[in-house]
Amino acid sequence: MAEGKSQNWPDWFLGAGKEVEETSEYFANARERLLKTGEEYVHIYPLQNQLLHYQDQLVQKGIINLEGQILKRHTELPSEFYVICTYAVAAPLRLFKLLVESKRFIIVHLLDSIYLNLANKNILGALSAFRSTIEHVSIFNDAITHVQKIAMPNSSNDALIVRTELEAKLAELTLGTRIDWNKFANQDLEAILSNRKNYTYKNAADRMDMTSDSVMNAIDRLNKKINTARGTYELLCEFAHPNIGATFAITESIETNVDNQGVVWVRKSIGIREPASFVSEFGNTICLVVKTVRQCIHHFEDLIDESSNLQNKVQTIVQIGCRELLTNTKDLFDTYSICPCASGEKIKFCCGKR
Length: 354
Ligand SMILES: [Zn+2]
Fold this sequence. Notes:
Layout: H1 2-5, H2 11-14, H3 18-35, H4 48-61, H5 79-88, H6 91-119, H7 123-149, H8 156-175, H9 189-193, H10 196-199, H11 212-223, H12 229-240, H13 244-248, E1 251-258, E2 264-270, H14 276-281, H15 283-329
Antiparallel strand pairs: 1-2
Helix pairs in contact: 3-6, 3-15, 5-15, 6-7, 6-8, 6-15, 7-8, 7-11, 7-12, 7-15, 8-15, 12-15
Bound molecules: zinc ion (ZN).
């Protein structure tokens, strides 16, 4: 593939070994395969705060239950509320689509980052991107495995429970965070960043937080499929963190010589040119890292293939609830508008079908 070829890694890095050459080719082609399904993704959703604004009072009044299911229509409530509730039912499908498409593009960006860093003689940047790749593949592996294990619900009540659990899991994996993003809105950023209490998140049950533990556990689960994943990740942390690895990675040349007294002197040159000495000294290590990351990308591509079947599964689950809600709220929707279940079909031919 012509476009793939142009993404091949530079000779000084290919010199690390055969694995590296094979991976260069594989990554260039994987990039094209991952991009072939589309050029962009548009995520449509009602602003979360609109629903949260009503939720507590409405649960108390018995108009909706804790899962957001509408129990009865109420004339005092604005119609937009019912519309938002109906859309909210499809949150797991929207999250699933967002997760699949965002990971696909993120992996393409990481492949590009690896290539561009190497093209600029920057192995340190490439190694950081390898590390990040393992993290993203691990989280995606968790999400796909989770959806695979879900048993299809037998009743609409079952579907409600499955949907609520699925939404929480997908929200954590898709929207996970280490900081409190809400605090960054409309406030003095410098004041927020200068005080840890201002930006750290609370590890509350109702928050979708991604702790470093949850990422490490995800990598351990990936390690069951690719048994060098965790070890390679730990090794790559040496380059991403201010550890010795980073100094190794900027080593251009090493020469040793013995002086008249018999003392061995080492002359190490570090800088921003090709880290040729690092590559020749650590060729085997580089080959192993590259092989593991290639296996991760291979696994990622398998997961992406699997995700289209799973998307249908998630869609079926959310449509059970959506059909019910549409029966209660059908006069609020134009039957020729896009179905709130997020299938992309018109209501009339989807969940609003008679
Ligand atoms: Zn629908």
